[in-house]
Amino acid sequence: MAKRQSLKELQERLARRLTAARAEAATASWLAIEVAGQGFLVPLVQSGEIFPWSGVQKVPFTKPWYAGVASLRGGLFGVVDLAGFLGVDAAGGDRLSMDARLVSLNPTFGVNAVLWVDRLLGLRNPSVFTSVEPTPPEAPGFVPRQLTDAQGRVWKELDLGVLASQAEFLAIAA
């Protein structure tokens, strides 16, 4: 009888943990990234896989923000230096570190591209932000709003769907 009771308790504990895990995943809305010292939020539903920096091959006659191509999981992906594309690269492209990652766009966008980001900062949910504001008029269309967290850090949300449809993003030839 004790074995049945402990099995039942184990099943109940597992069910509670699974329910809690689902609730936590549902509230995490963004992947927080850092690019040239600035905080950005990428909607989880718009992002794909995350890869470590690896074997990016330069492509001649491309724009400076186009870092090259990389073979990731057997597919060929264009690597976009997000800091260079956004024009916030104060280090002149010399930001490569052990923390650098490649964040792919969701395959539903039909663009085999990954964004080179300086580092990942984890998942964020709406409850950690104290204010939400529209971006300034000069901000690009793929940055729909800014959020401020409890520590006062300003985060810019990136709409990868809008970014993937931008003519400038798709035109890599110099």
TrEMBL record:
Superkingdom, natural source? Bacteria
Q: Which stretch is the leader sequence?
A: none
PROSITE patterns per record: CHEW (PS50851)
UniProt domain CheW-like: residue ranges: 27-169
Q: What is this protein called?
A: CheW-like domain-containing protein
Q: Taxonomically, what lineage is the organism?
A: Bacteria, Pseudomonadati, Pseudomonadota, Betaproteobacteria, Burkholderiales
